[in-house]
Amino acid sequence: TIPYDTCCIPYIISSHKIAVSLEKLSSVLIVNRSTKLNTTPHHDHAPIDPPHLHGQKCLRGPLTTRLFSSATEPIPTPLHSLHLQLSGNMVSFANYSLPVLYGGENGGVMKEHLWCRTDGKSSLFDVSHMGQIRWRGRDRVQFLEKVTVGDIGGLKEGQACLSLLTNEKGGIIDDTVVTNAGEFIYMVVNGATKHGDMEHFRNQMEEFGGDVSMEYLEESMALLALQGPGAAEAVGKVLKGVDLTKMPFMSGVDCALDGVEGCRITRCGYTGEDGFELAIPAEHAISIATALLSDPTVNPTGLGARDSLRLEAGLCLYGHDIDGDINPVEASLGWTMGGPGSRRRLEGGFLGAEHILKPDGKFQKVVKKRVGLIGMKAPAREGTDIYDGEGKKVGVVTSGTFSPSLKKPIAMGYVETGLSKVGTEVMLDVRGKMQKAEVTKMPFVESRYYRVPE
After folding, report:
1. Which of 197, 281, 344, 400 is the most buried if burial means most Cβ atoms within 10 Å?
2. Is the distance from CB of 158 to CB of 252 less than 8 angstroms?
């Protein structure tokens, strides 16, 4: 198998483990070319290569890769055969087979990353591993406000918000995007945590006892993310009946894409750029993805660039930057509960609220905070220890990489609260060598989320 890790990506090639840092990925061949191919069809047909992708080495026909794993076989997404046609270097991520990068003229982590940041261009990601859920029942809002920290009841129809699932200690079980879709509430959770999330929901539903039902869409719906300054123009070519100029960031609506009914578009993303998540019936995922890729401004993009893009945007990766032992205040995500005096902060009512909020809605004091870090000469990877000027360990790096946009190392991690002020100097033990670093605000790269003109 070729497992994927967010900060330093280990691969098994010809039985030899090789660690490849993100900034070198674009020039390194990752897939073992001796890997055999299974000709069992995954889809009835394979699309014709989009014209601007002809320079990429294509695998013709409905092929799937036999990925060897010490655990379970990774699950192919509905786009699997398209990834292979586009020379996707497939890895196992969240138990799904997904491309870490693509071959070809515009492939590789560095090029894919910079494409997404370029005016007039956009990047297409396969995020079908994520869990899509529809909540129904007259008590669905009340239930969701028990298991998430957000003001779900305050969402207007079509409006979405980023929220957090918490446990009884106030720790973060997962982060999620929740949308009021009118007749139901639409939720997207992380692929690596979705089954644990749903088990948690079932347990809470038993205790809740109200009128609420959870519909997990399983593999019936694919999920694509189109991100970048040119995303609206590109998706507008396959989207009819929706005025994207009037669609604010963090909103969604049911729609038809390339003539296919039963789709949903949400203006949101994980890159710091304008963009959309497109929920598509699985059987139509390849045709719609191919239609999007026929636009020369759209580039297929893998997990490697997705990770460096989200880190530049200062966004958390679950299981690395946030987990069940970290609460929203420590993670600098207190804003997901609303501002001072907001209903959710005053009422609480969600799991673990008493460990996060005071009775007056103010935050409980915490001993550590999530911060950005810059100034290192070399990338500080996950697990790098952070020290103060006197040599005392005061924290740890949770994500780090070389920023393709800034052309310098960046990282995020946790430090003692007293050292979390912007400009504070710290020391990092980067592979046995102490390096100076400085606490900085995030995002590292200015966000360009869409705002509806006034």
Report:
1. 400
2. yes
Question: Which pair of tokens denotes residue 386?
Answer: 């952070």
Q: How confident is the model at residue 71 (pLDDT cuts 50, 70, 90)?
A: low
Cα 371 from chain centroid?
Answer: 19
Is residue 400 within 8 A of residue 384, CB to CB? The reply is yes
Indicate whether 25 pLDDT > 90.
no
In order of 195, 307, 335, the CA distances from 304 in angstroms are 24, 5, 28
Contact by Cβ (8 Å): 173, 324: yes
Q: What is the pLDDT of residues 292-316, one digit of tens each?
A: 999 999 999 999 999 999 999 999 9
Q: How far apart are CA 254 and CA 433, in angstroms?
A: 53
Nearest to 317 by CA among 4, 3, 6, 2: 6
Residue 27 pLDDT grade (very low, low, confident, very high; cuts 50, 70, 90): very low
Sequence-distant (≥ 6) Cβ neighbours of residue 206 within 8 angstroms = none
Name the DSSP letter for residue 89.
Answer: E
Q: For 318, which DSSP code?
A: B
